[in-house]
């Protein structure tokens, strides 16, 4: 049954109270029409619980806006939701990706993630193409999707809002990878369910790497906000080779916006729960509000925490990844790089969860703590021990 307005409704009862479900909840297609965002198709989801989010059809069906009862969750960067036609993938030495980075989710992949790379291309059997050059975090996030459907679906008295699309990262004499993405939310619910399948549509053996850059902003991110996760080990930290504590920001507790902040990135080895899920949250106890990400350890064996606490940016990233932070060559050397033959696919099942009040925050943090206790110091010394990734 639909849980709305402090009561339960059957499908019949809900229909009796309105001419269209869209009065309470729904998903609709619209197009942005100004500035760098002009021409970008967008799906707006409203579940009726206070959860509203938008899906950028023309940006790999990534999630852009996200809010709950008017309180922002998803991060907006200075770049805005730029139309892909304006994007220069290889610009700025491979760092032009930042000019298209904004929103709750920015998908990274499909054949490359992490920093710039030049990799052997002999598998594509084309003499002039000796190597493949990849910019930061890959190409996929600025590729428009072919929207295959969206709407509402009833199963008895439960209604699911949904959208599906196909994002094709394809070229001649190179990769032909398809991302088939389905996004769902339940009427009356506070969760977003993301199901991705990455398939090799071509006939060349092709590498595959995948990561979600899930970006949370203010007011969940605020002075005193806590990063809560089942951390077995702190594997790596970008800033550990220098003065590890020079910015006075550890992994656990967030400060207010900073001036001249150097980004900090951590890789944690997470403990899954009994169902194989890794649960990570950012919570603001002062306002009783939080956001959680649930992934499967078997699908995303690595997890990064990105701290961009610079004033005017101010975001925290929760980043599940198929590979360790050292990237493609490191994965090749350790025989951890995923290779897809024709028709092969990888599936990724992720839940994004709003924690709407203090009780939900308390209960969720308790469930994480029950899996394994996280380090109780702000600056745990990285072990440098990258667990072997074994694929199914």
UniProtKB/TrEMBL annotation:
GO terms for molecular function: carbohydrate binding. Pfam families: DUF4432. Coiled coil: none annotated. InterPro entries: DUF4432, GH-type_carb-bd. Signal peptide: none annotated. This is DUF4432 domain-containing protein. It comes from Asticcacaulis biprosthecium C19.
